[in-house]
Each structure stands twice: as C-alpha cells, then as structure tokens.
Design goal:
metal ion binding (chains A, B); metal-binding (chains A, B); Aminopeptidase; 2 domains; elongated; 15 helices; homodimer; alpha+beta; hydrolase (chains A, B); 9-stranded mixed beta sheet; Peptidase_M20 (chains A, B); Alpha-Beta Plaits
Chain lengths: ~450, ~450
C-alpha cells in the first residue's frame, strides 16, 4: 500500500477523534478584538502548541504586543524536501448578536443539515476548522510514515480578525525562521461543495483622495453662479473622464503590465456558470458595468478597475442651499492586476486630475494605501501539482479562480519573505463566517484533511 | 418755487429731525427670529403706525400668526394720480457676536467715517434707514404741499429676516387692499456712493435633487468592482454632461425664452468697471467660469446657469473604505432669466438625467422650489422716470443693474398682485448688513430722502 493511501485511510478512521480535537479548540472563545477574551486567545495558542508538540513539532507560543503567535517546525522526510510555511489564524470574530444564534457559539456540535452533516460554532469555518484540516493531515502522515513528506513551518496568528497589528513586525523580526519555499494559506473557499478551488490571483489596490479647491469661501450661487468656478463641476468632469464609453480606464499608461487572461482559463471560468445573470441578480442589477465584452468573472478577477468610493461637496443636508462650494472631494481606488505598478498608477492618476483643474483652482491629494496584485503564474509547477491533488480528491476537477479583493498576508509573504502563496481552502459561500450560526461542512473538514494529505504528497515529488 | 424744489429744501432743513426719528426706530431691538424680542417687534410696528398717522396716513398694526404687518394708506393729490405700494421691513437681524460691535447695536449714533458721516446701529441700513428715506420723503411732500403727488399704500413687514412666513397669506387675504399700479421696494443698494442704481432684473430659480440608485446594498469594491454599476460614476457623468466645453448648458430647450441683452445695456455695464479681475479676485479666482465670451456681470445678471450645489455618495468620513455605494445624490439649481419657464426647465432636466441612467439603475427626484425670473423691460416708462429722477439727484447718472439672486417679495407682488416692482435703494456694499457694526451712510439717508421725493414727483407726471 503506497504511503498516501494509508494516510488517507488513517484520516478516515481517525475522523471522530479529529472532530473531538477541533471541538476542544472551538470551545475556547478566542475573540481577538475584545480585551475581555485576552486570556482565551493565549489559551487557544497554548492548546495548539501542545497539540503540535504531541505530533513531534517543535512548537512555541511567541509573545507580541498583542495576542501571541504560534510557530512550529517539523523536518521533512528527506533533507532536500521542499519547505512550506502554513498560515492560519486561531482567533475568531465576536458573536453578537447572541440572540440570533440557535446554539451557544462556543459549544460546538455536529448537526444534520439538508442531507449533510455540519459542524456548528464560532470559528468552525473561519479559521479553526480550516487550519485543523492541515494539522490533521500532518498528524496522519506522521502516524503512518513516522515523518512528513515536506519540511513544514506553521504560523498561526491570533489577530487576523482585528487587523493583524503584530504580523508585519513579527515577520520582519523572524524572517529567517519563517522563510520557506512557498506559503500555504487556508482561509479561502471552494467553488461549490463538489468543486475545489485554488485562488491564483488577488487584485492589488491604490487608494487616493482628491480635493478640488476653487473660491476662497463658499459663495452664494445667485450672486456668483455663472462666473465663479464650481469645484463640484470640475470634480464631476474629472471623474466622468476616467472611463470611456466602452468602460475602459482612460488614464495614460493605466493598462501597462496588464496581461490578457489565457483563453483556456477564460473557458474554465465560463464553465463555472456564474455569468452576469447570477452574479448581478443577487445585488439587484442586470447589466455588467465596466469594460464591455468581458465576463463578470474576468472583470472582477482579472481586470483592473477605477472606482469612486465616496464623493462629497457643498450642501448635503436636508432641503436646499444655493451655495457654490469652495471645495469638493472624492475617494478613488484602483484595483490592480498582474504587473501594474501602484506607484506609476498613482502618479498617472494625479497627472490626469491636474490636467483637468482650471489654472485658478487647485487640487490636493491624500494617499490611502497601495499594494501590487498577487499573481501565481497559471503554469507554476506548485499550482499544477496542487490542482491535480485536489482534482483527485473531489468529484469535480479543481478550478483556478481569482479574488477581486486582497488578503494582506499574501502580499506580506511576497514582499517581506519573497514567497508565493498557495491559497487553498474548503469553506463554502453559505458558511456564515462573521455572522451568527457559523458552520463548516463535515465534508469540508474531512475532505480538507484528505486534500492536504494529497497536496503534501504531490509537492514532495 | 416749484413744489419739488421746496420739498427738497424741506428735506435738507429737516435732516436732523429726521435723524432723531430714525434713531427712535433704531433703538427698538426688533429682532424677528428670536422669540425674546417679540414685544419689541410689535413696538416697532406701533411706532411706525403712530409716525405715519402723524403725517395723515390711515395706518394700522395688522396681526398675523407671526409678527404684525404695518399697512397705511394716503390718497394722492389728484384722483387719477398713480397708486404705488411701498414695501420695507422693520425687523432686523440678530446682533451676535455682540463682542465684535464697537458700540451698542441698539444705541444708534452718527460717527465720522473716512471723511464722511455714518449712522451706526443694527438696522441702520437693513432696512430701517432705507424705509425711513421713503417715509421722510412723504413727510416733506405733505408738509410743503399738504398732500402726496401719488396715492401711496405702505406695507411694512416684520419677518423679512426670518423667512417671511406670514407674507404670502397676508398678500392673499388683503390683495384688493394692497394692489396698486406698481410696487416700490427699498431694500437694495447703489452701485457706489456717487452712482444710484435700479435693479431691473432678478434671476429665477429651479432647485432639484437627484438620487441615483444602483445595487440593492453597498458593495465591496474588491468583490464587485468592475462588474457592478457605481452610482457615483453615473452621477458624475450626468453632471459633467450638463455643460459643454464653451460653458453652455446642454439640456435641450434650456435657452428657450432667453434674450440677448441689448448692446447699449452691455455697454453701460462695461463702463461700471467691474470686470473679471475685480469681481473674481475678491473670491480668490481669476478666470470666469460659465459661458465663454461674456462679461462676469452679464454672466451673473443676464444669463441662466446650472450649478451643482451639493453632492454626496459612498464613504465620506476620514480614511478610506473600498465600497461601491448603492446610491449617490446631488442638489442642482438653475438660475433663470427673462421668459425661461421653470416648469419646462425642470422637466427637460429630468429627461436629460433619465436618458443617462442605465436600464438596471434608477433615479428619483425631489423638487426644491421654483420661481421665474423677474424682468422690468428696459424701456418701461416707470423705469425711465425713476432713472431720470435719480440721475438728477446724484453726481453720476443712474445705472440699471440686475441681481443674480432673487428677492422673493418681488416675485410675490408679480404673481399674487400682478404688479411690477421698482427696486431702488441706497445701501452700499460696505454697510455690513447682517454683520456686526452695521452702518448706513448719512449721504444715503439724506440723498435717499431726496431721491424718493424726486421719484414721487416724476411718476406723478
């Protein structure tokens, strides 16, 4: 019997015991954002250290200014085995409003859902259930083969739900210890209950705020209207000019570094069946905005955007005031893909705006964050191995998807430790993460363990 | 000695006594907006009734739901003399911040300004000093000739500084009593201390609020950006489209009913020396906005405008939020001239907006007031007589100016009583009305009395 087969078999027979371990972790109310649960956060970290040590990891609770990190190391079966850093977080979201929960959020249980079993409780999906899929896969490997197919470093954070204030300093201070060949992050979802997914791209972000100033004070629109510059008009013109009639962004150089998505990837996305109808009807819309002739998945996963996130100027209260404002402002963000350069995008945008400001008016800018896109090349061996492993486990072939938003840790691993991240997770869209009655499918927990067992096997080859 | 000459002479010799009367009225703190001064408002009304009765007017205090009106009547010298309605207001603005006043605002005094005498105190210019110029002119006519050259009805209001809530109901209930051949309103200013002015036009106003709705909730711009409609983009496009590159309003039919200002009037305005430099430098600007190739005075006095008075949407607080708002709104107003029809303008604007809303989004509108422009024909005999009378009195010839804003009473007289209004006043731009240290020039008070004496004479002919 090949090693993998016995490992998978061990996972199956050990499922009830693995569930008991997850329950023990879920019972600890490690709410990171509420100081009242500070001790519980440490308790969760200590529980994890103890569990990892029981499997032969050298593990420790590492203090930070906030909640502690858990760091653990285990050698691979051979000295030249790949080295992976696995990331998860043991902290959970607050549980209010408590009266909307059907059960105590910290008394986990297995219940029968619509023809399937679910694990209920705060953190079941986000992220305790997910991180334990990896831990249990390691346990099974260790139990069956006495070792792990790859060298594993584990990093569990306790502040993911409260903005990760300690993460960057910790990565910086411990870069040598944490640096691996690549990272594996288990905090995302499947496409559906039968289709595993790998998130291969995260869009980057540039945020900027414009303030247009015209007259030195608010003016009476009767006395000055028609002769004095109106900053809202100027701002509206700037914002309207950002997109052309086909929905393309008109800022010079904006598309530099943007690649066309390969036809086979587009075809895969097409097959996912999440077209404009499904995507938009949920939010009360029916016509894709943005660049014409592209699917909604391509638009949100693989195309850059410019969005005005807020606008303000003049009289905004009840009723009416015939005022010409002295200034007006807008918050604008750009989602970036591929190799678009945040620094160049910001500079080009600001030039674009300045060119539209009359000579007697002025504009000022405030920077609001900047991060490049994260993009795992579709032909990367890591990706192909993980895809094959996942496809072996689940009814449907694994799909490579993207995320319109960002997961900061992935950018930090890239920037601070020079590592790509493999984003694999087993959550489902209806897991109610951050909401009352959070759950995790038993099939996610079980299949997740088996999936990681397969992935560890695949990447060791 | 012709009647007018002796009347003017009487005004000169009676100046000190007229000043005492004005002081008596200025001492009454008739602040209409503050309930604490309710009795003082009535006191001012009663003082005026008594003064008018002393000159032979049949005068009375007329109760309203708010502060009382003063209505007074006096026959003309002949039964076929014209009948004029004179309007002024006896209420004044609040005086805070009191510590910025050099003197007690209700202890009027004559002081020496820069080589000239000024009358200080709240209401000196707005409007007690101005309304008394007319009363004193009548007194002099009565004293010298035993009668008045025209039939005079006087209407003094006590709520002008607090929105005139009782005015329309009062005009409606007393239309027969108040209707005259035309109205004379003394609440405006001179062009400068040597140049009297008649305001011949007031722009009308249409106010409208647009609310664009897109998705059924606020969206995460990472997850939906690029595929979901952004109402701020739609609104910016609508607002940017309102003006073309030459500053003209592009709404179909917008310029229907707009007349070109006669060349000789434009030439007069040109001579006033208030070009773009002077007009704009005060407010920190230098380039006229709006329609190209027109002077700032023409732009603000004789051209219609579209102005966005307020805009709001998405995240407007500190920092940044990557949200796509579900709705965005703007307040837009149009200043109207000549025969532009407010009803048609509003309808055309709404069609213009609707044509720019994507089929899966919606727009709603809220009406915020509507009034047509007021326009006294340049060749009206009333205007020509008043202009000649004013030109006889002052060093410079009277100029016909316009006002970019509106004076509601003029529209009410037009609409409810079918009367044109002659707008003549003697305030100066530096009178600090509504501010601490309000003043009225002694030359305004004296020359104003003489001016009305001349105008009454002129229009009786």
């Amino acid at each position: 019997m090949p090693a993998l087969a016995s490992v998978l078999s061990r996972i199956d027979t050990d499922l009830d015991a693995s569930l008991e371990r997850l329950f023990a972790l879920l019972r600890i109310p490690s709410i990171s954002t509420d100081p009242a649960y500070r001790k519980n956060c440490r308790e969760a970290a200590e529980w994890l250290v103890k569990d990892l040590e029981s499997m032969g990891f050298s593990a420790s609770v590492r203090d930070t200014k906030g909640h502690p990190m858990v760091v653990a190391h285990h050698d691979g079966a051979t000295p030249d085995a790949p080295h992976v850093l696995f990331y998860g977080h043991y902290d959970v979201q607050p549980v209010d409003p408590l009266d909307l929960w059907q059960d105590d959020p910290f008394a986990p249980a297995v219940k029968n859902g619509a023809g399937r079993k679910i694990i209920t409780g705060r953190g079941a999906a986000d992220d305790k259930g997910q991180l334990m899929t990896f831990v249990e896969a390691c346990r099974a490997w260790k139990a069956e083969t006495g070792s792990l197919p790859v060298k594993v470093t584990i990093l569990f954070e306790g502040e993911e739900e409260s903005g990760s204030p300690s993460l960057k300093p910790f990565l910086e201070a411990n870069a040598d210890e944490l640096k691996a060949d690549f990272a594996m992050v288990c905090d995302t979802g499947m496409w559906d209950a039968e289709t595993p997914a790998i998130s291969t791209a995260l869009r980057g972000l540039v945020g900027d705020e414009i303030k247009v100033k015209a007259a030195n004070r608010d003016l009476h629109s009767g006395l000055y209207g028609g002769a004095a510059a109106n900053p809202i008009h100027i701002l509206a013109r700037v914002l309207a000019d950002i997109h052309d009639e086909t929905g393309r962004v008109t800022i010079p150089g904006f598309y530099d570094g943007v690649e066309e998505t390969p036809a086979d990837v587009l075809a895969t996305w097409e097959k996912l069946g999440r077209g404009a109808d499904t995507f938009l009807s949920d939010i009360g819309l029916s016509i894709p905005a943005g660049e014409k002739g592209r699917s909604v998945l391509e638009l949100t996963w693989a195309r850059p955007t410019a969005e005005v996130n807020g606008i303000s100027g003049g009289y905004e209260g009840e009723g009416f005031k015939t005022v010409i404002a002295s200034e007006a402002s807008a918050k604008v963000s750009f989602r970036l893909v591929h190799r678009q350069d945040p620094v160049k995008i910001r500079a080009a945008f600001r030039e674009f705006v300045k060119a539209r400001i009359p000579a007697d008016c002025s504009v000022s800018f405030t920077e609001h964050g900047s991060s490049p896109a994260i993009h795992l090349p579709f032909d990367s061996p890591l990706l192909q191995k993980a895809k094959a492993a996942l496809s072996d486990e689940w009814p449907n072939e694994a799909v490579m998807i993207a995320m319109g938003g960002s997961i900061p840790i992935v950018g930090d691993f890239q920037k601070m430790l020079g590592m790509d991240s493999l984003l694999v997770g087993f959550g489902l869209p209806d897991d109610r993460v951050h909401s009352p009655n959070e759950k995790y499918e038993m099939s996610s927990f079980h299949g997740g363990q088996r999936s990681w067992a397969r992935i560890l096997d695949a990447i060791a080859r």
